[in-house]
Amino acid sequence: CTSLPEIIDDGVTGMMSPVDDVEGFCSAIRRLKNDLALWHSLRVNAVSMVAQNFDQSVSVEHYAMAYRGLI
């Protein structure tokens, strides 16, 4: 895949295509260009996922929990 599957949920927070699949990648781009509702949905979902999982305070809490588990 051309992105991190741990971050991109195909069809929910983004679109995935296999490595070296130029036509598949171009097809995904064309689909987004022609389907603004899909583009908007992916954008909203991606922003929400980042806010929930990668916000600095969330990341600090995850690290703190991991360190507490080691002690």
Q: Biggest sheet: strands, sense, closure?
A: none
- The N- and C-terminal alpha carbons lie at a distance of 37 Å
Overall outline:
elongated
SS-derived structural category? mainly alpha
Could you characterize the architecture of this molecule?
- With 71 residues, the chain is an all-alpha fold.
- The chain is built from three helices and no strands.
- It has helices at 22-34, 36-53, 56-70.
- It is elongated and about 50 Å long.
- The chain starts with 21 loop residues before the first helix and ends with a helix.
Strand-helix topology:
Layout: H1 22-34, H2 36-53, H3 56-70
List descriptors.
single chain; 71 residues
Write a concise synopsis of the structure shown.
The protein has 71 residues and is mainly alpha-helical.
